[in-house]
Amino acid sequence: MPTISLCSRIATWLEHYPDPHASAEENAARRVAEDSWLAGFAGLDELSRSQVEELVSWKFQSMPHRRAQAMKGITPQRWNNRGCSAGAADLIRQALANEDDYQALAIIAVSGSGIYRFGPAMGSVLLAACRPGEFTIADSRALKALRALGLMPDGHPSFQMDDWRPYLNACRDLAVRCGTSLRDIDRALWIAAAGAP
Fold this sequence. Notes:
The chain is mostly helical. The chain has 2 domains: 3-40 and 135-193; 49-130, no CATH class. 60% of the residues lie in helices and 0% in strands. The chain contains 11 helices and no strands. It has helices at residues 3-15, 24-39, 49-59, 64-71, 76-79, 88-97, 101-109, 119-130, 140-148, 164-178, 182-193. It starts with a helix and ends with a helix. The relative contact order is 0.15.
């Protein structure tokens, strides 16, 4: 698909975020408010437990079960792990300091060694919030949209760790081609997968 046509579609989808049934003006105001809130995390090298709770609540605002599961990963016991492995606070610091895209997410999201019950979706939210120029959110809907656009090969419907590098590269490429932020690419793809115009 030609870049101009693709970027036009991205812009159209973006206008419909976060609510395809709301007016463009209302959606624009909600995006500005969300950007303002997210700006409070940009550039941080570590997060407090309450900041992570905020991000969990934001990511899973319409999915109470997933929110409850993710909150289990940052209980006081798991936050500053009193065992021999790193706690959630240390894992987040390590991930934000890591320069390898895959490892940054793996530190937080790999089952067994990462933050309990986080996975790629929640792990990538922390990275994207603190490093918005480098990372986006690992989202199965956005992944579906990239596949439908022919920008990623077919694969498992839910987001897998092996999807992370190609997904991130595809989103970065779109952001550069269309002259927009990674967050706006994520928003547009989320709407595209929902079947909005």
